[in-house]
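Example: ABC transporter permease.
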Amino acid sequence: MSLWSRISNVFRGECLNRDIEEEFEAHVAEAVEQGRDPEEARRALGAAIRQRQESHDVRVIGWLDSLRADLVFGWRQLKRNKVTSAAAILSLALAIGACTSAFRLIDALLLRPLPVKHPERLYVLSRYGMGFDNKPGEWDSWAYPCFQLMRAAAKDEAELIAVSYVSRTDITYKTDNEIEKANVQYVSGWLFPTYGIEPALGRLFTENDDLKPGAAPYAVLSYDYWTRRFGRDPHVIGRTLHVDDRVYGGVFEIIGVSEKKFTGTEPGTLVDIFVPTMMHNGVTRNDWTWFRTLAVVSPGVAIEPLRAKLEAVSHAFEAQRLSGETGLSQETLKNVLANQVRMEPAPTGASGMQQEYSHALAALAVLVLMVLLIACANVANLMTAQAAARAREMALRVSIGAGRWRLVQMVLVESILLACLAAASGALFAWWSAPFVVSMINPPDNPARVILPADWRVLGFGIALTLIVVLLFGLLPALRASSVKPVSILKGGDDPHSRQRMMHGMIALQVAFCFLVLFVAGLFVTTFERLSNKSTGFSTERILLLETTSRPAQSSLYWDQVADHLRSVPGVERVSQASWALLKGVGWNDSISVNGGPPSVDLAYFLSVSPGFLETMRIPLLAGRDFREGDLYPNAAIVNETFARKFLNDANPVGRAFVKASDDGSRERMQVIGVMRDAYYRGLREPMLPVIFTPIHNMNKNGEMHPLKSDTFIVRTASANPMALASMLRQDVAKARSGFHVSNVRTQLELNQSQTIRERLLATLAFFFGAVALLLAGVGLYGVLNYSVQQREREIGIRMALGARIGDVARRVTAGIAFAVIVGTIAGLALGMASVRYVESLLYEVKATDANVLAVPCLTILLAVVIAAVPAVLRALRIDPVAMLRVE
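Written out as structure tokens, the predicted fold is:
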């Protein structure tokens, strides 16, 4: 009989049995035709049951047939216990789905190689040491002249590629009134051929397109952007667009579309438009660092000697660049020149999102792993309880010849069915939850776009996870079920205490992991609460931010005219201007000199604002006066308390003067006309910085007002919802003066909230997983307590008949569980204390020893124990002693 026939017979079932029966009867009929007695013929052929079994064994593959039988039996078991099976599937589905979702995010940002040739040979260059602010750090930004020197030095060992940070930029295709946003990236012309990227349409850049500043005004669209924006229109080639950024000219001709798989080198951000690096007006400046340097190392090249060579080039460049610098202290110069160069493997690319969320994703992975372990322990307890109920069945199977492996296989197959159903449900949860988490990462005006394909990597992880889950919750119950002793069981001598010890051990494990999840969740929630409720020093109430550009750059007097027009709009209370809004995350800093002294080691931070800015933002002025219309940069300055204390050390700093080194080497004298209360400048996590507000009006050497290309109008509205005026104000800016356009509108509150996006994400997910862990642990506690009462009904009934009190019964029912919970809590506390060091960088003003951080998981678990114990105790108290004695 062929192999295929034996395989197909496994699934024929009753049809195969009928075929065997018909064949048997045919043999009997043939013997009868030869004159033999029917009964004698049957005896000669052997017992019908034995004949059928032997014939069945010949026609099928034995192990496959037993597996099919176990699948059918396992499915019947699941259907017979619908409630418990559904609970197990739901808990496992949630855990598996959460793990798969976390893997999709981690894989997309940190693990998935770039779709380029030889990603394993890709490295990113960075410098680490002390910065110009004399604080330790690491920077992956470079100046283009230094890049050119390093590329020439590494010519025979590696190809260096310049890739700018992706910027969300204003794009114009038709008229100036149709501005839209797109992610623009400046790249070396040899990027596409080096990476092996082919065009989907037109052509891509070559090295000849990136040789001379401003000489190649070309643009390449990504396939994703071409699809979203142009519907894959092939006639896009030859069209022009205007990029409102730091570029030569600004008008680019579209020459091609990159192939579908390549969306840039920054995981978490999809590039829309590529332009050559030589079109950036910073390519000739040695003091402007604006791009990353990626290195494709040639085969067989040692990394350390190459790194040392590039470091030598970088040191020489910096030493020459800073040789005539007079605006920095000698200590700062020494620290900066001592920076080291790193070459880190970057097969997945390099992005700010990787740096910001790598620790957060690692913490998220640990949380979901804890939930998975709790769910597995929960289901293991459930299956152990079911195995106890099936002890006599297992004993009978062993008695009639079933081997130990046969019983293990039968229980494991049931576990596999359970896990597969849970995995299917979990896949749906992961399909929804991963994009949902991504949507929480960035604000609406600059959303993260992470590619989350459901490919073989995710499928392989899901299959591996399902198998691990089966082993975690199914193997131990299967081994215990297979070790049954038939004689003891059939005599009614099964000892439940060993099984209870195992179940109590599982409960202790669940409680430990649950405590850890709740403890870490408490740290993250407290961090978010304290950071989001932190006083910023200014008001966000009814503040609308209009980030505005002008094309071309126009005099600050014209910007004043636009501001005056906005003040006349109904519903507008106040309008002020600033170079950028507070807490936007950007800054301008420099050293200063006081009383003719050397440049300061610490840096001061600057922001240009218009008169009335302090009143608009409701920042109190503590001394002196606000800016007036006639105040010009750099003559007047308003400083905050931190600056006055740090640099001037004067109880009355109004009237004091200091000197700032300007970009052209000249010394700019500033006089303090006012002192304001401290307000956060760049970020809430930073310490309070010394800040100087300067007038927004700046007169050049020719006596003309310095033109501005971009500025932010800060509008305080009368409406409680400032966004209600957003559309009107956007149109009024364009109407007020030709060439002005609002590129982005948001509230100050949204900007403040963007400071805590990571903390909000961690707090939300940690709270969710903490609730899930608590629910699973509570269900596990209830199940074990209920099983314990069920096994001890006769003992409890007899004790009650002998006069046991209610308290004594409740104590005996809960004693074992209470001990397991205490052990689990202590273990969880130890795990929590050990884990703090790994999440410390994600915390803010919260310690593991804070009373509320420790009290919340303890009290929550105690409440869960009480809720789970009440039904079991009530069931024990409802036992009828007379009925139990009658049974005895």
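The radius of gyration is 37 Å.
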